[in-house]
Amino acid sequence: MKKSHRFGAIALAAAATLTLASCGFGGGSSGGDASGKTTLNLLVPSYSDNTQGLWEDVISGFEKANPDIAVELEVQSWDNLESVIATKIQGGEAPDIYNGGPFAGFAADDLLYPAKDVVSSDTYSDFQDAFLANAEVDGTAYALPLIASARALFVNNALLEQAGVAAPPTNWDELLDAATKVSALGGGVAGYGMPLGSEEAQAEAAVWLWGGGGSFGDASEITVDDPANLPGAEQIKKMIDAGATQADPGSTNRSPLMDIFVQGKIGMQVGLPPTVGQIAENNPELDYSIVPIPTKDGSAFTLGVMDQLMAFKNDDSKKDAITKFFDYYYSADVYVPWVQTEGFLPVTKSGAEALSGEEALKPFLDVLPDAQFYPSTNPKWSATDGAFKSLFGQIQTKPAQDVLTEIQAQADAG
Amino acid sequence: MSSTTDTSSNPAGAASGRPRPGGAGRAGNAPGGAARGKPGGRDLVKALPWIAPALALILGVVLFPAGVMFFNSTRDISQSGVDKGSVGFDNYVEVFSFPYFWPIFLRTIVWVVVVVVFTVLISLGIAQILNKAFPGRRIVRLVVIIPWAASVVMTTMVVYYGLEPYFGVINKFLVDVGLIDTPEGYGWTRNPMTAFIWSIVIAIFVSLPFTTYTILAGLATVPSDTIEAAKMDGASPARTYFTVVLPQLRGALSVAVLINIINVFNSLPILKVMTGSIPGYDADTIMTMIFKYIQNQHKVDVASALSVVAFLIVIVIVAVYVKVVKPTREV
User: With a cut of 0.85, is the ipTM above it?
Assistant: First the structure.
């Protein structure tokens, strides 16, 4: 009696503990079905509420043109995407096509087809060279550029005017001055929206560290703990100490803070092309402008982010089907509406031409030539990215150097 | 004593006084069990069809994943999830050499102790009130279940958004009554200490219904004649409660505490929502740390090692608790 109770309690404890770490067995079937069709599994993140519908349209168009190929779509949130893909790979159920960010780790584990092998040469040569170069590991591109985005500073004209700032800032000194003046307006208004919380700390970090002449490293080495990154980190602290930012920047996430900007309570914040649509939808009266991101010396710079499509080597018989799918997807008729609806920038030459007249995208297309990218081809980038997300916000309270050292250590260990 | 309490306690009182086959009470149980256990093999074979489903469930749902978890904790699993061979106990070394491990460990203990103690104390009070007859008692009893019926993540999200600066209702209220003088409110969930304290409050809130009902069930088994006897002997209400009622709640209380300890120790969603955006490791417990290993660092191997450690900690706590409190010993 007593014994069985004790065992019961331990079993209960065990069951409860295990639910967290052992969720490593995903279901899902793959491979061809009885009718001889080839089935491609497609795993994509959700960029917006439109994402699922857009992919469904692509797939139904593709299946109509290729009746012998079926495509199964799985949409995940960005939060879960990377754990889902890791779980699937661990369980031997890697998708055939995957839309994600960091991919160098997959390439290092020899899981991916080289990009050249899964698209026709016409499609391959249509990619803009800078993007393709950013998808290379040791000279071979392992992923296909999918979309690009660039960042720019969104400025609330009304608040700046109210604070007596004549023109949007172009360098750090002007930015600090303008943000301090706007913050001084009171009433809960913040001068500069600085989201260093876990959601996308690496982006805001890059805006400052790179804007001060630093870098996160390259394909072979991660250099976060580098003297070149210190000016940017110190400037972040200066902004915080001067009260030029919103409260608790170290743990503020980007999306909720952008909502506050849209509501008109923040003077300036770095945003993305989709932010334009967000403002149009939620607060069309907002009087704002989009200007290049201020840097230390005022030189032009933006943080470019590129997401990729990659093809996993599951079964060589699927290679032709994957190639057909990619060639179909990147044809201008399919690709351009896709990118346009999602509000991102195109990565193909034909796509850029088709969208060159687009008013809302113009400020971003203008800064794109000066874009710098994350060192995402470095196998340690994924660990670096995680380290920034979980540690960089500490810069609010800790010395800048300590934070950089800690991030470097965690990145090296990953 | 009201008639409601009387009728409800009658059947329970009868049940607790039921005759036991094979000799009475605690002493008779163990020898009886040993005697029954002797024939061994044949009985076991006979019993197998009956216990097989339960055994299969325990093997499949408890032991197998535990085995896989332990196995994973000794492997080197790459970030993309490829198994690269055995590394012995290196992952455990990494867990224990992590500079924040001991603070996180201590915070986990504080988290469990504070939540469980307050939950039980508050539940004792609520159960006492609900045990008295008053108009609308049934509705109040239903209301108490609500935190239990609602999803924990949902409850936490409600509080989380309430605490948001700029638009959270709790912040707005505190600003309006003048307790906070920054117009956008205070970043309760942006600072490790306040976020952790609010998490404790939510954890207590969602643990109350189960604990209250367990204690309420215990109160229903307290025979009314013992209380009447105490009253006739002139015991004060306080004395009646502490020397007559409380000892009889021992069984219910010890089960409630045990299950709460396990539950609270393993609770992830509240802390994940409330402290998720805070950088560093100043508001983490072991569970959120496991989550961070998986989510941010993609170290399934190290996360497994920490899970095994957490598993052992729970077993030790439960074993000590069972040894000391003997929850199954009858009064």
Answer: no
